[in-house]
Predict the 3D structure of the following.
Amino acid sequence: MNRRNFFTFSTSNTNDKKVPKPMEVSTGLDPFTAPLTIRSAGHALRRMTFGVSYPTLQSVVGKTATELFDQLAIPMQTDAVPSWATTLPTNPADFQLFQQQRTELQTWLCNQMRKPTLSMQEKMVFFLSHIYTSDTQKIRYAQFMLNNNQKLRSACFGNLKSLATEMCKDSAMLIFLDGTANRVGKPNENFAREFFELFTLGVGNYTETDILEASRAFTGWQVNPTSLDSRFVPNRFDNQPKTIFGQTGNWGVDDVVRITFEQQACAEFYVRKLYRFFVYEIITDFAEENVIKPLAQLLRDSNYEIKPVLRKLFTSQHFFDNEFHGSEIKSPANFFIGFTNETGATNYPTNVVVLGMAIQAQELLNPPTVQGWVGYRSWINTVTLPQRQQVCNLFLVNRTYLNTPLNPAYNWVNFAKQFPDNNDANKLVKNIVDYLVSFDVAQSQIDALVDEMLAGLPAIYWDINGVTAPTQLLLLMKAIYNLPEYQLN
């Protein structure tokens, strides 16, 4: 694939899309057994985490894909939640307090995504939040949003069927999808419709009758006025037989989930979501037959435990196929959080990361629609690309961004000294590019970057301990961050 032509830039807005070409990949789910290299380990970590430091990447080189997955699939410790997070809102009319707590929650969540721990937990939480979407504008109270997010975190390596049951009774979801308005005699179909379309089956795998009958089964669940959890109110429940996917009974929430997960389309729905999020947007006929369907069967055989499916996918030849290296345009989350995780830039304030993501249309906990973020090629256009480059350039010269000082100054000499052969200009540039870019770039481009760093001087003049090294490295890093290739994951 010619990655330089991988994406084209819209001259209008993010809704101006071009249809991507399918990847020519013929590898399947056979195990990837080769020892991990900088290239293959980097690909895996860019997809399965929000980016890692160079020493962390080096620590997994030589391991097997299975060893890496086992390390990444261990839950990590999260920070203590804000002091207000576990109590009910004390003053629902206080809009300023609502805004403040929402900002604190976004910062807390971003801090978890910026943790240096070698774990894919937060990437999985982010993935699940693309399925079970909700937003702070409608739900309003950060307490409910955090409670919802913690449920995704607890389930990210667990059982999808149990998570679906949790989400059907979750206060944030009940508010977001009008479940609180659903009661016997006046069923509200919104929750049931989105449950089938966006959470479990996808369009075309249910009928309008299934929606109506499921909405009756979902009646009775309300936000609890005395806690953050929901409660079942019997006199609001439709206590009569319902027929869903041909099965008749006096069904409730648990029954709807059970019957839905018995449908053939359910496992394939989740596997396709996984594939598009972690591998590639377009599912070819080959991938459908040799990756999607076998993984869907594994998911059914595992009673919807997700970890066996993750293990199979993320240790497969298909996942590690070279064609997928750099085949994904970085989302704002992958770009902003990855940028700081790669450099270990603790001086880069979290609020800048959160606001930068929001400006690029990926505000945490606030997707644009119930379908979440469209993503893929919509992330890049003639507005968003210069914004990304501006953020990197401001960071490089330690100016302010969004009225936030980016201090203290980042030490690029120390960054460069992490790499082997750092006093050889050609080898240093090649090693940094291999770390930051997802695929091999032409030697002519490496030569051009060396020339940029040295301002035209011969490579023999490079001295990493020299007085001009900080300035020279700034020139190099600015050139790398402005590469179109850096936008690819």
About this structure: The first strand starts at residue 221 and ends at 223.
